[in-house]
Structure formats: C-alpha cells, structure tokens
Amino acid sequence: MLYVVMIFLWMAILLYLLLGGADFGAGILELFTSYPNKSKTRKTMYRAIGPVWEANHMWLIITIVILFVGFPNIYTTMSVYVHIPLVLMLLGIIARGTAFTFRHYDAVKDDMQKVYNKIFVYSSFITPLFLGIIAGSTVARRIDTEASNFLDAYVFSWLHWFSITVGLFTVAICGFLAAIFIIGQTENLEERIRFIRKAKTFNIAAILCGGLVFLASLYEKIPLLDWVFGNSVGITAFSLATVSVVILWNLWNTDKTNLMRVLAGFQITMILLITTWKHYPNIILLKNGSSLSLLEEQGNAKTIDALAWALIAGSIFILPALVYLIYSFQKPKEKIIS
Predict the structure, then answer these.
(1) Distance between CA 294 and CA 285 in Å, rounded?
(2) Which ranges of the sequence are coiled-coil (predicted)?
C-alpha cells in the first residue's frame, strides 16, 4: 500500500502543476498584457479558468495531507527549513483568491477594483515563483538540519540561484499552460491569435528559463545533467518532451485545441518525471549528503494502509465529479473562420 500512497503523491503534485499552473498562469498572462487588452484578457480568463478555479487547490491539500499523515519526518523537515517560502506561497494563494473573488463578484465597482487587480496579478506571479523555489530547494542539498544559525538554517536553504531559476521556470510554465488552455475558449480569431502569440512567448520563456536552471545547477554543482541524461528514462522523457514541443509548434494555426492541451500537459509530465526519477525514492536531499526517502521515512504501516484506502475511496468520488465539473463549464466550440 506504500506504493499506492506514493503514486497518489506524485499524481497530486502533477495535477497541481497542470491545473493550478493554468490557474496561476491566467494572472501571469494578465500581468504581461498591454493595458488596452487587459479587459479582454480578463473576460476570457473568467470564462476559461472556471472549472480549474473551483478545484485546483484540492491537489495541494492532498499533497500536504499525504506528507503529514504518511511521511511525518519529511513534512516536518520541509515545514521547518523552508517555512519562509512556504508561508509566502500560502499568503500568495490567499491574497490571489481573495482578490479574484472581490474583483469579480463585488457589487460595487470603484477604485478598489484597481487594488484587487494588482493584488491578483502580482500574487499570481509570486505564488508559483515560491512553489518552484520550494521544489528546487528540496533537491539542491542546501537544507542544513545541523545549522547553528538562522540564516544557514532558514534562509540559505532556499535562497540560492538554483532554486530561484526553478521558480522562474515554474512561472514561465504556468503562463504557457494558461495560454494553451485559453486558446480553446476564445470567441473570435483576433483573440485566438493574441493568445497563440502569448503561448509561443511563454513557451520560449520556459525553454530559456530551463537553460538558466541548467546553468545554475552547474554553478552550484547540482547533478541535474546526470539526472536528465545519465539514465534511459531521463533521456527518453527529454526526447519525448522535445518532440512534443515541435509537434505543438506545428499546430498553432489549426483548430486542434484539445490536442495542444494534451501536448502541453504531456510536456509538464515529462519534466516532472525527469526531475524525480533519478533520485527516487529520495524526496529531500540534505546538505550533509544524506537524504529523506519515501521508503524509509514512512509512518506506521497501519496508518499507510488506512491512508491508501482513503485515497482510493476518495478518488472514486472525486475524479468523476471533477471530470463532470470541467465538462459542465466547457463552452461549445465554434469554428473560427478567417
């Protein structure tokens, strides 16, 4: 049953990257949209992220619950040594959700709408930035459980070039996912072209930020190149992701929006596979050379069994409801004639 829990953990992280990424990316797109087009972007975004908005943080909650219940030592280490970016990420989630609700449903339209807009777009940028920083810090071997001062224990564990570049890479991925998702929800050709342009821009930004991640890993002596190219799984996943990018770029001018979404999701899946496979089952790599393993840091066997059955039973109820939610929010597609 331990492997069932581990599979659910990996899938929850992946789904949060995909659905939460598209959600955060909507705000990032608005942040990088020219003022004359902001209202159009906002209107399209409201229509497009409805189903994602309703359920995306469920995957983050599931991830936290699995770590808290099934792997308490891993949960404790993360919540202690990277608590600063964790708090900032959670504050970003709260601020973003609050701003989204008030600016969309507030009965009074006044100057506070401008404040809500700024809170929404900047928290949409900050939240995935710190999510990526947290992810980078867990594998950078900078978390020092033997640190004797505040900075080494709670700041330098996450504040370094590798984690920052992973954070920027995460932001670019979120913008890319949002643009891809919204393309299929546009109402006219002009809107479609605009979001295709944004998808291309953020795809290029993600590739460039990915290059920065590799450079930072070389600078800080993190074996990222070995994780990617030192095993057949990494090489295969990287090759498939590259091929999917090429295919995607040949679909921009077609109406195959669902295929574009699948390809974008496939790319993120391959990226997550690449970055987790080589050091599996180690989930946190510590500065002293040791690691926290999912196999060694598991909780009580009966707790793991109960958690696994709870996850299986929950998925039977949650997944069909989520699929129906997304389906019910989808607008019938209209063919765009140039």
Answers:
(1) 12
(2) none
* Residue whose structure tokens are 């891809």: 180
Half-sphere exposure of 276 (CA within 13 A, CB side): 18
Contact criterion met (CB below 8 Å) for 276 and 10: yes
Could you tell me the residue ranges of all domains in the chain?
A: 2-329
* Cα distances (angstroms) measured from residue 265 to each of 88, 171, 259: 27, 15, 10
Q: Please give the Cα distance from 100 to 121 (Å, whole number).
A: 9
d(CA 72, CA 134): 18
Q: What is the pLDDT along the chain (338 residues), one digit of tens a residue?
A: 889 999 999 999 998 998 888 888 888 988 888 777 777 777 777 766 665 666 778 888 899 999 999 999 999 999 999 999 999 999 999 998 888 888 777 666 777 888 888 999 999 999 999 999 999 999 999 999 989 899 999 999 999 999 999 999 999 999 999 889 888 777 778 888 888 999 999 999 999 999 999 999 999 999 999 999 988 999 999 999 999 999 999 988 888 888 998 999 999 999 999 988 888 889 999 998 899 999 988 888 899 999 999 999 988 888 887 777 666 666 554 444 44
